[in-house]
Amino acid sequence: MIEAQEQIGGATRSKSLTLLGFLHDVCSGVHPMAAGSPFFRTLPLHDHGLEWIHPPCPLAHPMDDGSAVLLEQSIERMYKSLGADAPAYRNLVGFVVTNWDTLQNSLLGPIDFPTRPLAMARFGLHGMQPSSRLAIAHFKSESTRALFAGLAAHSVMPLESWGTSAIALALATLAHLTGWPIAKGGSQRIADALAYYLR
Q: What residues form DSSP beta bridges with 61?
């Protein structure tokens, strides 16, 4: 195990930055990819101090008028909340949710030939597009487009960049399947649990 800093963890570190007794995540705070990782699920990290906290709603995207669009964990509630955009959401995100068991290793695992090449090709055709283009082409309401843009923004790339839709689709899918948990006691607990297990 190699770590350049005094404290292990890289972007999964927590520190007391303000008041005594309050921990702050230095970088990452919410971990849908860790909760959804096929590899992480094979590790007994709970036995080494990692406990996930799941909020009742994975994400809320605020709108300029003071309202917010919610990314519900239940995909059925999500469909109901989207109104006219429900069929497009079902076609884009619902497809990935339904096929996640066969897509997850291709998307979150080592590079290999996909077990379901047609499902992976469909994901790729949507995922490779700029999120700004995909959202405008598929969604009618500003709130659904804003939610999709907020998800895609986690790529830390301009929304006009190719491939940003893949991040939005994967994060939305994980919200419905595993949630967007936080680590109890701060993100540092993830790095610590991995280090304890390795030792």
A: 69
Prediction pTM value: 0.90
Provide the domain count of the chain: 2
DSSP 69: E
**pLDDT tens readout for residues 38-97:** 899 899 999 999 999 999 999 999 999 999 999 999 999 999 999 999 999 999 999 999
Rounded to 5°, angle at Cα 187 from 54 and 23: 100
> Phi, psi (5° rounding) for residue 78?
-65, -45
Q: Residue 45: enclosing H or E segment and its boundaries?
A: none
Same domain, 66 and 164: yes
- Residues 183 and 33 sit within 8 Å (Cβ to Cβ): no
**What is the identity of the amino acid at 2?**
I
Please list the residues that pair with 14 across neighbouring strands. 25
Domain span at residue 172 reads 59-177
Shared-domain flag, residues 166 and 188? no
Strands in 76-160 per DSSP E: none
